[in-house]
Design goal:
The structure is a single chain. The radius of gyration is 17 Å and the shape is globular. Strand 5, helix 6 and strand 6 (188-190) form a beta-alpha-beta unit. With 294 residues, it is α/β, with parallel strands linked by helices. 33% of the residues lie in helices and 14% in strands. The protein has one domain (6-290): Ureohydrolase domain (Arginase, Chain A), CATH 3.40.800.10. The mean pLDDT is 97. It has helices spanning 25-33, 62-81, 96-107, 136-140, 146-152, 171-177, 200-211, 245-256, 278-290, and strands at 6-11, 39-43, 85-90, 111-115, 163-166, 188-190, 218-223, 261-267.
Length: 294
């Protein structure tokens, strides 16, 4: 069956709770991608504002995140029900649980390919910042405040046995979330150190094969902090020892071009740190190439 129309949906948010930063990313990236090869569903409207953590659950700007999650869930459910393949232009990773819930609403069971420099398994109590972008995988697995779980529906949204996480390298995060991720049942975790040897295209191909076995479908998440800080400085959580753009392209192309792909989000591009737009242009070129947009 041919893939549905790739459809852009901007989610202009930044979980730090103020204007600017990654909130500006969707508009700039949409411009750099250009209209050819995409339909466009516009932008979500809910912003994340507030610098205080919820006294009960530790989340920053929690009320706004609940509203945002509801809006994203509805938008993605509508697009996937219409046979579209949403391409969510973030914003930050806070958008992910709502996107997964929306795709699950219309398509049933889905898998998740999670390309990120972090595991994002904090809770509001363990997170140093309280930002929603610290916690999307935990929330998708059902580890979140009750009010957020109510707007997500049944959890886990994605069976942990159908999750592949690729590229994490934040050792401080691992220390803070211990003993996670052990015991969560996540099927496959390829840390950055695991990717140093071998054919990265084959790693991508094997993940795509696992997540699309038979008629199975999956969502692709890309946080560009998976890239090395020298390769892509236009993001907020800069870390050394990340992937090069060529390595990332090799890894994600088999997934982005898979018939099992039902949606993708790209997050954490901060155009405030990209005055000459060289990072944004490289990201747009990567996406068009990987998604085989002519």
């Amino acid at each position: 069956m041919p893939r549905g129309a790739l459809t852009l949906l901007g989610v202009p948010i930044d979980s730090v709770g103020t204007a600017g930063g990654t909130e500006l990313g969707p508009a700039v990236l949409r411009d750099l991608l250009g209209p050819a090869g995409f339909e466009d569903a516009g932008d979500t409207s809910q912003q994340i504002r507030g610098l205080k953590r919820d006294v009960a659950n530790g989340w920053l700007a929690f009320d706004d995140i609940v509203k945002l999650t509801t809006e994203v869930r509805t938008a993605v459910a509508d697009l996937t029900a219409a046979g579209k393949v949403p391409v969510l232009l973030g914003g930050c990773c806070t958008l992910l649980p709502g996107a997964l819930a929306g795709a699950r609403d219309s398509l049933g069971d889905i898998g998740l390919a999670y390309f990120d420099g972090h595991l994002d398994l904090f809770t509001g109590i363990t997170s140093p910042t309280g930002e929603g972008a610290d916690m999307p995988v935990a929330a998708a697995l059902g580890v979140a405040p009750q009010r957020l779980l109510e707007v997500l529906g049944e959890t886990p949204i994605v069976d942990p046995g159908r999750i592949a996480m690729v590229g994490a390298r934040d050792h401080e995060e691992l220390d803070l979330i211990a003993p996670l991720p052990r015991g969560l049942g996540i099927a496959r975790i390829e840390y950055r150190d695991d990717l140093r040897h071998g054919d990265l295209a084959k790693v991508g191909e094997s993940i795509a094969a696992e997540l699309s076995d038979g008629d199975a479908k999956f969502w692709l998440h890309l946080d560009i902090d998976i890239l090395d800080r020298e390769a892509f400085p236009a993001t907020d959580y800069l870390m050394p020892d990340g992937l090069s753009m060529a390595e990332l392209r090799a890894l994600i192309t088999p997934l982005a071009s898979s018939p099992g792909l039902i949606g993708v989000d790209v997050t954490c591009f901060n155009p405030d740190k990209d005055e000459d737009r060289s990072c944004g242009t490289a990201l747009a070129e990567l996406l068009r190439s990987a998604l085989a947009v002519s």
